[in-house]
């Protein structure tokens, strides 16, 4: 698809800059061969950003005043750090956890370039390194993945054609007190390299993806007898898969209740497959989304109705993005919204969901924790973080590769590429209650003013309140559904005979809220839902902007610029701090511009709110 082609260009450009290399695209990026080629480019792209080791070794340190020692934090305390040099060396990558049901002890199996380390984290302030399982045949890889089933660890590695999947009996760790060099109990050779592994503990199957088999798709392995894995089949029709999650489905789509369903992340789509019959898997849906860069990984809510997804290469957009999906209909999942971080621009990587919390590894921004209790309304709130890479919060591949939040003790493990194993604990603080100062859902006229300064230049598609009509041009441009109710603010609500009939044209259009008197104290924030859509004839001169008009003038809070790529309309949310204007009378100013000529540009706004905490 065109967005994949855009991503290919971005990656090729970065390679030219950082690796003095160029990407030669011999395949259609939508084909299995093209997806595999894209993955190989990623193998060069990621390490190029990695810096020298950055680690601060501290004893247990509470998060106070936004810091735990040298680490920025919010509501997360540091328990301990084990630098890479103390657990086998090399660079860190993925990891997984194991709880010994006989002893209650907790362990981390930590992936490194040259092997997997075993760490007893039962006393998280004093973790104990127990030893190393070397990579098969002394090989090395930046990509190693671990999953656990029935007291056994299963370990795969990418870029090593002979590695296969190592199997290690974790009960061998009982009684170990000094570091050992371990050997595998078994090795599965049905594939050589693998990018990641997923496990369904209910059924006893491993799902390896990105292998040298199954066109890079899902290679299914029966591990019910852990030391004797058996090839169970392939899911290959959609080509290369980067990550996946496979579950016995118990969500709202009753047609598939009790079926084993895999949610695959296929570089540019969410692809859902019924794998109940391993000999004849059935693809239920294949769905792309607006803003696609490189579909990476995601996780289901516990009721299987929603899903959060990370895109690893959407960093051309402002703010770290987390995509929200409604998967209540497995044949027709819908990307309902996007959470946009108001504070960081880091690349997000892996996330997991427990109850109403999501735990995300965001590379240079470390661990981020979200309250997802409002996910059905596309409402996520960041409530805590622990940043293991204090040097920066921008895009790049340093810092937190993975997080493991599933220990009953509450210990959260973070695997740092340069840092090693970082153990932390979420220490939630009771926040002051949030009250709504002012809000507008646009169901009634409340006094917004179009062209308030008399300087707008747009000739059509100016801002108006109303019931929007959907338009399409190589995908949705004007979104025909609002976030709530019937009306929103939109740049020309009518569809007309084509997408370009009533879109924004000719320059700038602005609309300003009525005056709102802010309280004199507290944490004040403004939030809203928005989208900017455009065709590939747009440019960076086209934009969507949110500003606040206050006693001292006008201050820009947010801006999204367009570009010469096609971008479909999809609702996103944003929140910005306006505490600096406490006690003042303020107005919210929304501006959109088609300033690059006759390009296709649409924008929308809904559910504006100002809160005090």
UniProtKB/TrEMBL annotation:
GO terms for cellular component: extracellular region. This is Choice-of-anchor B family protein. It comes from Catellatospora bangladeshensis. InterPro entries: Choice_anch_B. NCBIfam families: choice_anch_B (TIGR04312). Coiled coil: none annotated. Keywords: Signal. Residues 448-483 are annotated as: Disordered. Residues 448-460, 470-483 have a biased composition (Polar residues). Residues 1-26 form the signal peptide. The keyword Cell division does not apply.
């Amino acid at each position: 698809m065109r967005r994949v082609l855009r991503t290919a260009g971005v990656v090729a450009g970065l390679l030219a800059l950082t690796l003095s290399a160029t990407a030669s695209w011999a395949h259609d990026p939508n084909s299995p061969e093209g997806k595999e080629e894209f993955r190989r480019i990623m193998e060069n792209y990621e390490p190029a950003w990695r810096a020298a080791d950055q680690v601060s070794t501290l004893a247990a340190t509470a998060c106070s005043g936004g810091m735990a020692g040298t680490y920025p934090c919010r509501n997360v305390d540091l328990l301990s750090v084990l630098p890479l040099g103390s657990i086998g060396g090399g660079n860190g990558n993925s990891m997984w956890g194991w709880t010994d049901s006989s002893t209650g002890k907790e362990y981390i199996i930590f992936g490194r370039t040259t092997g997997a380390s075993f760490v007893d984290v039962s006393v998280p302030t004093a973790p104990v390194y127990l030893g190393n399982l070397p990579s098969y045949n002394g090989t090395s890889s930046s990509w190693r993945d671990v999953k656990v089933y029935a007291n056994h660890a299963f370990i795969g590695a990418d870029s090593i054609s002979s590695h296969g999947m190592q199997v290690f009996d974790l009960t061998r760790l009982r009684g170990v007190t000094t570091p050992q060099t371990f050997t595998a109990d078994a090795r599965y050779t049905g594939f050589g390299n693998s990018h990641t592994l997923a496990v369904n503990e209910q059924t006893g199957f491993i799902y390896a993806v990105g292998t040298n088999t199954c066109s890079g798709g899902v290679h299914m392995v029966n591990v019910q007898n852990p030391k004797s894995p058996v090839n169970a089949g392939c899911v290959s029709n959609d080509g290369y898969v980067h990550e996946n999650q496979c579950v016995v489905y118990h969500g709202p789509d009753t047609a598939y209740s009790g079926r084993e369903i895999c949610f695959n992340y296929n570089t540019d789509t969410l692809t859902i497959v019924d794998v109940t019959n391993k000999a004849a898997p059935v693809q239920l849906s294949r769905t792309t989304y607006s803003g696609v860069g490189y579909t990476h990984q995601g996780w289901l809510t516990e009721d299987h109705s929603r899903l959060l997804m990370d895109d690893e290469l959407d960093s051309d957009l402002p703010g770290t993005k987390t995509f929200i999906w409604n998967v209540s209909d497995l044949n027709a999942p819908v990307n309902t919204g996007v959470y946009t971080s108001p504070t960081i621009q880091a690349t997000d990587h892996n996330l997991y969901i427990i109850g109403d919390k999501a735990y995300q590894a965001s590379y240079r921004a470390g661990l981020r924790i979200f309250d997802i209790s409002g996910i059905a309304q596309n409402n996520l709130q960041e409530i805590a973080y622990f940043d293991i890479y204090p040097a920066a919060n921008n895009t790049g591949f340093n810092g937190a590769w993975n997080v493991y939040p599933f220990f009953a003790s509450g210990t959260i493990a973070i695997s740092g590429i340069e840092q090693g194993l970082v153990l932390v604990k979420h220490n939630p603080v009771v926040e002051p209650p949030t009250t709504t100062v002012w809000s507008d859902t646009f169901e009634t006229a409340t006094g917004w003013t179009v062209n308030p300064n008399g300087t707008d230049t747009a000739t059509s598609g100016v801002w108006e309140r109303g019931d929007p009509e959907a338009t399409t041009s190589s995908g949705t441009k004007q979104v025909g559904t609002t976030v709530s109710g019937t009306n929103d603010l939109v740049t020309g609500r009518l569809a007309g005979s084509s997408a370009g009939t009533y879109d924004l044209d000719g320059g700038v259009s602005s609309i300003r809220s009525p005056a709102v008197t802010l309280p004199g104290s507290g944490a004040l924030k403004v939030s809203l839902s928005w989208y900017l859509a455009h065709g590939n004839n747009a440019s960076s001169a086209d934009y969507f902007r949110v500003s606040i008009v206050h006693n001292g003038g006008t201050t820009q809070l947010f801006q999204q610029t367009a570009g010469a790529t096609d971008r479909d309309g999809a609702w996103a949310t944003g929140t910005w701090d306006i505490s600096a204007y406490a006690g003042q009378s303020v107005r919210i100013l929304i501006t959109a511009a088609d300033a690059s000529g006759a390009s296709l540009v649409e924008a929308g706004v809904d559910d504006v709110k100002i809160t005090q905490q």
